[in-house]
Automatic annotation (TrEMBL), chain A:
Taxonomy of the source species: Bacteria, Bacillati, Actinomycetota, Actinomycetes, Kitasatosporales
Protein name according to UniProt: Sugar ABC transporter permease
Manganese listed as a keyword: no
Subcellular location: Cell membrane
GO biological processes: transmembrane transport
Family matches, as CDD domains: TM_PBP2
Transmembrane segments: 12-39, 69-95, 102-125, 145-165, 250-272
Entry similarity comment: Belongs to the binding-protein-dependent transport system permease family.
GO cellular component, one term: plasma membrane
């Protein structure tokens, strides 16, 4: 009786099929196809022609790959550090319910409303040496261009992550802080002993989104620096774009893309591990 | 101004000694000013406001005044000419294309992901588990990694240079996060409610529409906002899968203004301001839903 009444009314797994099929066709299959294309030569016209390991050999000998991998890693780590520190502090601060905080949080959110393209164009103009706020050639120097990309990415995405931390901080039970305050823990002590540990899930979610997100700073790089000066900001996605859609060397571009997929899959496995998303539990349990 | 809104104890509360003693620890940790944090937040306010101010003020500046002027200086002869220039170069067309893409993406994502999340939460077997893990892995696939094969597929499907070429992959790439948000929300719906409905003989379909969807409104709202923002923000797919003016979306329109306006930075910035206005309007009206929905993602 109980068995049948709980089983009754459960949807058939086939309900998931349309979604799975759609996602497989437009996201998973291309990933597999990218790997296949990395063993071919194709200039965008006609059909891809198999060339064996040629692209991979060329890629591994390409000094730009090493530089690009290093830049991608550096950009990811720097952006993560910058955005985590700022959005964690702002988010915890904004979690208080005073009115001035609500007003400021509303203003803080505004950059997120502009598209990446709009933001990249805005800073392209503001960093112009003849026009901009800083009257020097920031984008012309390699460290300047790199830092500009980190800053612009942060400017755009910190509002979003602040919001995540604000939500996370509001879910911390007040009694924890009260108990610690009664025990004589000061503000900073409570921040490190209660707030930070309680925010670890938020940090994992937000951290992985940041890391994956920094792989998508492509627009910013394309508009702000075109990978320059020289090749000093040519991160992996930009290298792929150049090989494919500027040099029409799609086989080679696919080899670069396969590197991206590998990185991304690694990150995604990390996500599953760290956040416990895989466990089919209500997150409210144990609160 | 903040004084009026703070819930202060009323006067009659004051003399009651034991009560105020009991409240002290609470007041201690919520009310005392934190000057360092206050200063930090003001600093960030400057970081946020200065570029926005510089953008708006430059967009109102006459082009002949723009160069060599300090970007923080207000315009000497404010003008709307730059906005006219932009509005006369296809801006409305690009905007409506973006709106079409956003609506289609939101529609596809909802139709596909709600049943998916429903199955992932309610029917736990090998197949639904595998489907769920597929989307977990999908969270981290960067669109850049698959753009070459997608280009090949779009060309073979004869969709190149159409809005559909932008809609389909954009929707697919919005799905993983949508599935995660929805399963997160659906898991919090009590099993008892389903059992009660099952006892009344309700079919899974009826439960979905009469129980799950109404109770998951918050999560669904988040998914609508998230996928609309994805479509709004999309650049790479339109850049590579479209070519002509017909299916050109706003982000690409903006990008093209760079070459079109060249050094006309005021017009360029006017286009950026204009591109922000529609979503800013939505933000002013639906701030609570927009912010509240996204905030929940981090708490999960």
């Amino acid at each position: 009786m109980t068995a049948s009444s709980t089983r009754a009314g459960r949807p058939h797994a086939a309900w998931a099929l349309p979604g799975v099929l759609f996602f497989s066709v437009f996201a998973v299959a291309p990933m597999v196809l990218a790997f296949y294309l990395s063993f071919t030569e194709w200039n965008g016209l006609g059909d891809p022609r198999p060339v064996g390991l040629a692209n991979w050999q060329r890629l591994l000998d390409d000094p730009r790959l090493t530089q690009s991998l290093w830049l991608t890693a550096l950009l990811t780590v720097t952006s993560w550090a910058f955005q985590t520190v700022v959005s964690l502090l702002l988010g915890v601060w904004a979690a208080g319910r005073q009115r001035n905080r609500a007003v400021l949080s509303a203003i803080f959110f505004v950059p997120f409303l502009l598209s990446s393209t709009a933001i990249a164009l805005l800073f392209f103009a503001l960093l112009d040496p003849n026009f901009g706020i800083i009257q020097q050639d920031t984008l012309g120097s390699s460290s300047g261009a790199f830092l500009a990309i980190v800053f612009v990415g942060g400017w755009q995405f910190i509002p979003f992550h602040t919001l995540l931390y604000q939500g996370g901080a509001r879910q911390i039970p007040e009694v924890l802080h009260q108990a610690a305050a009664i025990d004589g823990a000061g503000r900073y002590r409570r921040f490190f002993s209660i707030t930070l540990p309680q925010l670890r899930n938020t940090m994992a979610t937000s951290g992985v989104l940041m890391v994956v997100g920094s792989l998508t700073y492509f627009e910013t790089v394309l508009i702000l620096t075109q990978g320059g000066p020289g090749t000093d900001t040519a991160i992996l996605p930009y290298l792929m774009y150049e090989a494919g859609f500027k040099s029409y060397d799609f086989g080679y571009a696919s080899a670069v893309a396969s590197f991206l997929v590998a990185t991304a899959t690694g990150l995604s496995l990390l996500l599953v591990r760290m956040t416990g998303f895989g466990a089919m539990r209500s997150t409210r349990e144990g609160m | 101004m903040s004084h009026d809104t703070l819930p202060r104890p009323v006067k009659t509360d004051g003399p009651s000694a034991p009560r105020s003693a009991a409240r002290r620890p609470r007041r201690h940790w919520t009310r005392r000013a934190n000057p360092l944090a206050g200063l930090g937040s003001l600093l960030w306010l400057v970081v946020v406001i200065v570029p926005i101010y510089a953008m708006v003020s430059a967009s109102l500046t006459r082009q002949d005044e723009a160069l060599g002027r300090n970007a923080l200086q207000p315009p000497a002869h404010p003008t709307l000419d730059n906005y006219n220039t932009v509005l006369n170069s296809g801006f409305g067309h690009f905007l409506s294309n973006t709106a079409i893409v956003a609506a289609a993406v939101v529609g596809i994502v909802l139709v596909l992901c709600v049943p998916l999340a429903y199955v992932a939460v309610r029917t736990r077997n090998r197949w639904s588990g595998a489907a769920f893990r597929l989307f977990l892995l999908g969270v981290a696939i960067p669109a850049q990694a698959v753009v070459v094969p997608l280009y090949l597929m779009i060309a073979k499907l004869n969709l190149y240079d159409s809005l559909l070429a932008v809609v389909l992959p954009t929707a697919a790439f919005a799905m993983p996060v949508a599935v995660l948000v929805l399963t997160g929300t659906l898991r919090d719906i009590s099993e008892d409610l389903y059992e009660a409905m099952a006892l009344d003989g309700a079919s899974p379909l009826r439960m979905l529409f009469q129980l799950t969807v109404p109770l998951a409104k918050g999560g669904i709202g988040t998914v609508v906002i998230y996928s609309a923002l994805q479509a709004w923000n999309g650049f790479l797919f339109p850049l590579i899968f479209t070519q002509s003016d017909g299916p050109r979306v706003l982000t690409l329109g903006l990008f093209n203004y760079v070459s079109q306006f060249g050094v006309n930075i005021p017009a360029l910035l006017a286009s950026v301001v204009l591109s922000g206005i529609p979503i800013f309007a939505v933000y002013l009206v639906a701030r609570r839903a927009l912010v509240g929905g996204l905030m929940g993602v981090g708490g999960k």
